[in-house]
Specification:
With 98 residues, the protein is of the alpha+beta class. The chain has one domain: Winged helix-like DNA-binding domain superfamily/Winged helix DNA-binding domain (Arc Repressor Mutant, subunit A, Orthogonal Bundle). The chain contains 5 helices and 2 strands. The protein is elongated, with a radius of gyration of 15 Å.
């Protein structure tokens, strides 16, 4: 079974245990870093590092939204969501295995 170098690199990035745990809840709904960190029980610094890696490799995209806190300050927060690349890589890997 021969796997192309690009696919192997993508699989390596996506299947890292922390990164895959990040992608799972984001496949359900977009979230900001605090929500992701709380859902995983991981520190924001670690989550931030892996979010950046996933974004750099095209697995995540993000946009800014205004926070909906009840306080007087309104902040712009980054909401992350998975891209189609996640499903594409998983499907390519399944085809190679099957």
């Amino acid at each position: 079974m021969k796997i192309e170098a690009d696919l192997l690199k993508d699989v390596h990035v996506l299947m890292h245990p922390v990164r895959y745990r990040i992608v799972e809840p984001l496949a359900e709904k977009p979230m900001h870093i605090n929500e992701i960190s709380n859902a995983l029980g991981e520190e924001k610094g670690l989550v931030s590092y892996h979010l950046l890696t996933l974004e750099e490799h095209g697995f995540l995209s993000c946009n800014y939204e205004l926070s909906k806190h009840t306080g007087s300050k309104v902040k712009a927060i980054r909401k992350y969501r998975v891209t189609e690349k996640v499903e594409e890589v998983i499907l390519k890997l399944k085809k190679k295995r099957g």
